[in-house]
Amino acid sequence: METIETDVVIVGGGPAGCSCALYTSRADLKTIILDKNPSVGALAITHQIANYPGVPTDISGDDLLKLMRDQAIQYGTDYRRAQVFGVDITGEWKSVYTPEGTFKGRALVVASGAMGRPASFKGEAEFLGKGVSYCATCDGAFYKGREVAVVGVNKEAIEEAQVLTKFASTVHWLTSNDPKEEDMHAQALLNEPNVKHWSKTRLMQIEGNETGVTGISLKNRTKDENQSLPIEGVFVYMSGSKPITDFLGGQIAVKEDGGVVVDDFMSTTSDGVWAIGDIRNTPFKQAVVAASDGCIAAMAIDRYLNSRKSIRVDWVHS
Ligand SMILES: Cc1cc2nc3c(=O)[nH]c(=O)nc-3n(C[C@H](O)[C@H](O)[C@H](O)COP(=O)(O)OP(=O)(O)OC[C@H]3O[C@@H](n4cnc5c(N)ncnc54)[C@H](O)[C@@H]3O)c2cc1C
């Protein structure tokens, strides 16, 4: 298995990772991004992003992310698809382990986002990837002409259900509370001809066999009996998101809410390791905030690796 040495290893190719890579590459630091999947991060699954400064308001998250990734690559970033499953940050060189090989960096940046989810329902973990999904953009096309269920009433659930209306014959939308009347996106979803809303209804169990999901059992708050629905896909958006830090093996400090602890320069409690974007579990999870984190970390890394006393800016007054 190959071992590759570089200046900066970045785990995660979302807006945080790509903006960091853009800056480190432009500072002549050899930079590798290791990205599990460019289609599953928070920005990648965003249907439309209307508030990223300077880009058209009808751009999809996926298209915006591609622009960011291509810009980093243009300046020399080595972008690779690889899922990081472990790190060793004890020495001067930080080792990052993937099935494709080991990557050693003088600086490590963790930017894996917060799309980790603990299973909430019976059958959810068992059938994950076999009918249970958290990404309509990734998996929606598998359900063309079939019946699916979407569970949850948050913004993500509504956006994902909207995506599924393009593929599924019926989208069964299960919400334990009714969506707000002033929520335009929710009302638009309810007006889709192939959406059936199950109001005040809880998912009790996801059922299936060796072929995958075959149905769900649900319960309306006003009824005594559970009801069964024969469906093939379940998209769950209940538990919100959770910073993805499992691959760190407890080697850096995290807060009670699971977010990685950083200082003003995005440095973690471990020397030579930075954390940026949603993995910090900031109260304002936005693409522009993640990109800003990436810029701050990159400039701090440049100073760290080049033993500069001050941060070198990426511009000069003319
Ligand atoms: C439905 C939804 C709608 C949103 N709408 C908006 C909006 O309108 N405007 C806005 O500004 N923000 C929006 N956000 C928030 C915004 O998308 C996030 O704040 C932002 O994407 C965070 O960037 P990030 O780089 O930290 O993480 P992410 O974008 O989640 O990227 C993380 C990357 O890390 C990779 N990764 C994860 N684990 C590993 C691993 N073990 N090894 C290698 N790679 C790994 C993932 O594949 C992914 O590519 C929305 C979020 C969601 C979920």
Describe this structure in words.
The protein has 2 domains: 3-116 and 241-305, FAD/NAD(P)-binding domain, CATH 3.50.50; 132-236, FAD/NAD(P)-binding domain. It is built from 6 helices and 15 strands. 21% of the residues lie in helices and 25% in strands. It has 318 residues and is α/β, with parallel strands linked by helices. Helix 2 (61-74) links the parallel strand 2 (31-35) and strand 3. The longest helix is centred in the C-terminal third of the chain and has 19 residues, at 287-305. Strands 1, 2, 3, 4, 5, 6 and 15 form a 7-stranded mixed β-sheet that branches. The model has no long low-confidence stretch (mean pLDDT 93). Flavin-adenine dinucleotide (FAD) is lined by residues 11-17, 34-38, 40-43, 45-46, 49, 51-52, 83-84, 111-113, 115, 155-156, 159, 244, 247, 277-279, 285-288, 290.
List keywords for this structure.
5-stranded parallel beta sheet; 2 domains; elongated; FAD/NAD(P)-binding domain; binds flavin-adenine dinucleotide; 7-stranded mixed beta sheet
Instruction: Give helix % range.
Output: 10-25%
The number of helices is 6
Give the CATH topology of the largest domain.
FAD/NAD(P)-binding domain
Bound molecules: flavin-adenine dinucleotide
The whole-angstrom Rg is 21 Å
Number of beta-strand segments: 15
- Overall number of structural domains: 2
Low-confidence stretches: none
β content, as a range? 25-35%
Mean pLDDT score: 93
Name of the top-level CATH class of the largest domain: Alpha Beta
